[in-house]
């Protein structure tokens, strides 16, 4: 009977340790999931900002081309008038 009581106490300690480890790993997993979600959100925001910057750059390139065409046209008219 003493041996069984000793085994039972040992098993209860192992159970408590296993439960503690399970809680620890569960918390680590939840923290990793939260961090991953934050990183996904950050990446999504950065992608949106990059898309906005690319569109703005394209608009500037188009405006620049129109201005260059206007400059060339004005220069040609000026040469003809001379």
Average pLDDT figure: 97
Helices and strands, in N-to-C order? H
Compute the CA-based radius of gyration: 35 Å
The coarse silhouette is rod-shaped
Question: How many individual helices?
Answer: 1
Helical fraction equals over 70%
User: How does the major sheet shape up?
Assistant: none
**What's the count of strands?**
0
Q: In angstroms, what separates the terminal alpha carbons? A: 119 Å
Which structural class best describes the helix and strand composition?
A: mainly alpha
Low-pLDDT residue spans:
none
Strand content is under 5%
Describe the structure.
It is a single chain. The protein is an all-alpha fold and 82 residues long. 98% of the residues lie in helices and 0% in strands. It has one helix and no strands. The chain has one helix at residues 2-81. It is rod-shaped, with a radius of gyration of 35 Å. The N and C termini lie far apart (119 Å). The model has no long low-confidence stretch (mean pLDDT 97). Residues 1-63 form a coiled coil. Keywords: Cell membrane, Coiled coil, Cytoplasm, Cytoskeleton, Eye lens protein, Intermediate filament, Membrane, Phosphoprotein, Repeat. This is Filensin. Residues 1-82 form the IF rod domain. It is found in: Cell membrane; Cytoplasm, Cell cortex; Cytoplasm, Cytoskeleton.
């Amino acid at each position: 009977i003493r041996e069984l009581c000793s085994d039972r106490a040992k098993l209860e300690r192992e159970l408590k340790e296993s439960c503690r480890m399970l809680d620890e790993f569960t918390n680590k997993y939840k923290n990793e999931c939260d961090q991953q979600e934050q990183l996904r959100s950050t990446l999504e925001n950065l992608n949106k900002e990059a898309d906005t910057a690319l569109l703005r750059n394209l608009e500037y390139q188009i405006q620049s081309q129109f201005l260059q065409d206007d400059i060339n046209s004005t220069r040609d008219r000026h040469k003809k008038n001379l």
